[in-house]
Amino acid sequence: MSNDIDVLIAGGGPAGAALALLLHHAGHRVEVVTRLRDYPAIEGISRRSGDAMARLGLNRALATAHGPVARRVHWGNEDRAPNQEWLLPRPAFDRALLADLRQAGVSVREARVRGWHQHESGITVELADGRQRHARWGVEARGRQAARGHQRDAAPWATPALILRGSSNVSSAASLASSLPGGGWGWWARAAGHAYLQLALPQDQLDEARGAPLEWLECHPRLARCWDDTALEQHYLRPGLVARTLVRQGRLWRLGDAAMSVDPLSGQGIFNALSSAHGLAPVILGALAGEPLAPLTRFHQRRQDLLYWRFARAGRDFFRLAAKDDPAPYWLGRCHWPDHLPMHAIDAWARVRVGQAAAIIGTHLRQRELVITPDQPLGIYAVSGVALAPLVAAMKAGRLDLVRERLADLPKAQATGLRQWWAQQSDWPALPLPVNAGAPPRARR
Ligand SMILES: Cc1cc2nc3c(=O)[nH]c(=O)nc-3n(C[C@H](O)[C@H](O)[C@H](O)COP(=O)(O)OP(=O)(O)OC[C@H]3O[C@@H](n4cnc5c(N)ncnc54)[C@H](O)[C@@H]3O)c2cc1C
């Protein structure tokens, strides 16, 4: 069986597209097999997701975004607009992802994948029309449905989303996230004359809203004001489960939502998808180069798991905040999973150490000296482009002279970025100040 393709990726959403580009640019033969999403939606992304897409060259996809709009949040008794977001109409965004891939020279096949077969030297994907494609490695990136049957550590509740979709006479883009009295929340968005409302509700409310969506909305004035005179065109239920998976089965790697799906409340699914691709690309490049699989698998798994638990705790904290003013069973039941640990561990200086571990350098995994902390157990290689381990090692050894010298050698922007980041680590000792301007110039080597 000939494997003309190095890596076959099933699913051309943000995760599959990002991975395809990274592997293609590294010189490998990649094919994406996908069908377009069959349900329309609007999803919100942050600036850092947009920046990540721009860096990858997903420019057509990024151009479908509307915004920026103020990310308005009404949660519990608080009104906030903490930052901005961009609104992505799907599946227009997904179509543009495929156009970006084709433009970059990646092979894209629009077909429905039925399943995978593994054999000794590779993997075969079976398409719905009976044809087959063979490759050395496969990647499962078909979204959260593809994780079904493989989930672990699932949240003890399901998160079905009721979606209301319609057309509006108002063309300006806007969004609002709001918790609801008695439990549940809604995210409303409007872009280019389309309006979208995503609802996560207690079961009795869900049944009511499914049966008579507009009547249900009338009882929720904040969301009703947003919906206003939008003409309802469709409402549908999207099943949802918060869970993670094992990231490799034989020659098949898992990516994006197919590896781990977080609560839509986090609004970070697309960021996760892109980040997941950045972590998997060097792992697959290592596998293609014949490197041992165990450490590669461990790296991808640990990275995914770290994100999974972090997002689970972020969701828990939102539920706790809502429960403070409204002790409804919906909120109280979600305040204790996954645990009671803080979302970010405090990086006590005494527990910060320097050690050898795998780091992503360009598109490869390399062993490097990293700074390993309770909050960043995978290690930090660089901050503002400056390798962190030598500085931490010098501070631990009390060699302030070496630290001062290293900082003085850095371009100003890098030194400032590093100092600002360091100052945010609340338990770390202060970096030595720069030498006074009036002091005699330091001899340069
Ligand atoms: C209701 C809801 C609201 C959300 N809102 C947001 C939000 O506001 N912001 C945010 O960042 N994230 C949001 N998310 C999460 C976000 O949609 C996902 O996390 C993200 O799209 C995952 O990317 P992916 O590439 O892994 O999967 P997907 O984007 O799901 O891509 C998978 C691709 O595989 C294709 N595919 C599926 N089955 C097959 C098959 N059999 N054969 C071939 N191709 C197939 C699909 O059509 C799709 O193109 C939301 C999720 C839900 C459920």
From TrEMBL:
InterPro entries linked to this entry: FAD-bd, FAD/NAD-bd_sf, Flavin-dep_Halogenase_NPB
KW 4Fe-4S (keyword) present: no
Coiled-coil blocks: none
Xref: Pfam families: FAD_binding_3 (PF01494)
SUPFAM superfamilies for the chain: FAD/NAD(P)-binding domain
Keyword entries, A-Z: Oxidoreductase
Domain FAD-binding: 5-291
Protein name: FAD-dependent oxidoreductase
